[in-house]
Amino acid sequence: MQDIEAKDKQYVWHPFTQMQEWEAKPQKTIAAANGIKLIDTEGNEFYDGVSSLWVNIHGHRKAAIDEAIIEQLGKVAHTTMLGLANIPATELAEQLVEITPAGLNKVFYSDDGSTAVEVALKMAFQYWQHKGKPGKQKFISLEQAYHGDTVGTVSVGGIDLFHRIFKPLLFTPVQIPAPSCYHCRLASDPASCGMLCVNKLEQVLAAHHEEIAGLVIEPLVQAAAGMLMSPPGYLAKVRELTRKYDVLMLVDEVATGFGRTGEMFACEHENVTPDMMMLSKGITGGYLALAATLTTDEIYQAFLGGYAEKKTLYHGHSYTGNPLACAAALANLKIFREEQVIAGLAPKIAVVAQKLAEIRELTHVGEVRQRGLIIGIELMLDRIKKIPYPWEQAAGAGVCLQARKLGLIIRPIGDVVVFMPPLASTVGELGEMMDIIARAIKEITEGGHVDNDL
Ligand code: PMP
Question: What is the rounded CA–CA span in Å between residue 1 and residue 10?
């Protein structure tokens, strides 16, 4: 199997990867999977602690999803949605409308999280053109935001490392502070500030609402920023203010949707109904690429008109509403219902919280953050003075490589150790994975050196 590794290094360019480093080191190739474990070409098993990039829900090779895809293969694998409908896409749209907050009644399909957000931005922009408010062309987004890698979504992104270089190519949003208390620059005591970040948003809205089409936000958790979590009530406040100032609220549930936060959707924690909700990742249970942008009748109707009125939303992709992916998504939702996945999360979330309380005490842990089964552990060289590790030390990467040696695949975001286990993980498995994380952090940060070799 050295062959396959050599071929990979010869032919493949990996995403979000410094290829010079990739080529220089031994790498793993995954050959198979079983439940929540991945199996490499040498037969070694690893817990899938990243849920194969935050998508996997019920584990790998889940029989009901496998069978749904096979059954659909016996009918039709793909047909376009331009001028045609297909059965799984229609059935799925009905179910998505049923399970998302009341008022989101229309489903526009696309293929991944980035395109779901891209669709929302274009839809919001065009909506105001049709509504006779053509001046509303700008977007509000958050510092540290991540909404995808297409040019539109990078424009509303706020992560310097990923986004800065593309600036000359992008449109410019109005940025508001990230509502992360641990990293707050607005308040000397974020715990009692009454959310100065919300005041900032209101100032921006009061001054600019006539130019603003929409506000785009990751609800509760800014994931790619390193699992930054907003204080309780923040999302509901954003809803209140966007309504007050007639600005559309576009909620990016790509990472948080489908049970990740402990509820089916993060919006439910604060009873928020947005004007648009973007879904992907967990929508197919982690099997196939699919995304959806849900919106209200009010927005949908603004696009209706005779052909000559040119109100059509000219957006669509070759694989939009792919029947195989929609069949997988229908099976995914059926499992949620039949296995009562959401109701079963409480003890799992509790065991993670319990283990995190121990990890919080480690010398080089600055903060631990948890929302359901979204976990971020931020490492600090000096946690009292909040001094981060030098960037080049790659402490987060060191911990994740150590965890891999101990049988758990996780990936860092800078020095935040991210843990996103499949929701199907049992209480026992979660405990084991958390123990590996604790051990890896100790061995790397208290072992006197940071070992970056696999
Ligand atoms: N929005 C959020 C909140 C995300 O976390 C991601 C991916 N991590 C995306 C959008 C982009 O999704 P995709 O990678 O499927 O394009």
Answer: 14
